[in-house]
Amino acid sequence: MAFMAKLDEPHITRDMYEQVRAEIDWDHNPPVGCLLHMASFDEAGAHTVDIWDTEDDLKDYLEDRFMPALHKLGVAAVNPTWSELHVCVAAPEIQQYVLDAPPLRSRPQHFQDGVGRHV
Predict the structure, then answer these.
(1) Average pLDDT over every residue of 66-92
(2) What is the domain extent for residue 15?
(3) Distances in Å between the alpha carbon of 4 and those of 22, 24, 34, 80?
(4) What are the φ/ψ torsions at residue 67 (nearest 5 degrees)?
(5) Which of 2-11, 48-57, 75-84, 103-112 has the lowest mean pLDDT?
(6) What's the rounded Cα separation, in Å, for the pair 101 and 51?
(7) Residue 74: CA atoms inside 13 Å, Cβ hemisphere, count?
(8) CATH label of the domain that carries residue 31
(9) pLDDT at position 97
(10) Does the residue 101 lie in any domain?
(11) What is the pLDDT of residue 56?
(12) Which of 68, 69, 71, 87 measures 20 to 30 Å from 79, CA to CA?
């Protein structure tokens, strides 16, 4: 089952986010199981929402890549939250916001004709 992870951190700036993203090498080596990642910034700090294929994929990413990158860069620890995904709907126009990067790695058996299927 898919999970939605959220992070709202007032101490994370756009520059810090980009440093962490580069350290993780997200654009060339995206994390296994991450189906969607979105980030925004405002006066309240950084806000991210991810959709993960499984809770184990999310936990593995946090433990093996994300938290070590924060530590290496001297960024204070963060406290993401997550819960089982109920629904995710996206219009075709979302494609205009997708970065030119390798596709996120997932388990292709969960998808048929580009549409997610619960297995």
Answers:
(1) 93
(2) 1-82
(3) 23, 20, 10, 10
(4) -65, -40
(5) 103-112
(6) 17
(7) 0
(8) 3.30.70.100
(9) 80
(10) no
(11) 96
(12) 87
- 113 lies in some domain: no
91 touches 83 (CB < 8 A): no
CA distance 79 to 102: 27
Q: How many CB atoms lie within 10 A of CB 86?
A: 7
- Provide the number of structural domains found in the chain: 1
Residue 105 is assigned to a structural domain of this protein: no
Comparing 29 with 8, which gets the higher pLDDT? 8
Higher pLDDT, 55 or 106: 55
Tokens of 10: 């007032």
Q: Which two tokens stand for residue 88?
A: 């995710």
Q: Is the pTM of this model over 0.70?
A: yes
Note the residue count of the chain.
Answer: 119
The answer as to whether 102 is a domain residue is no
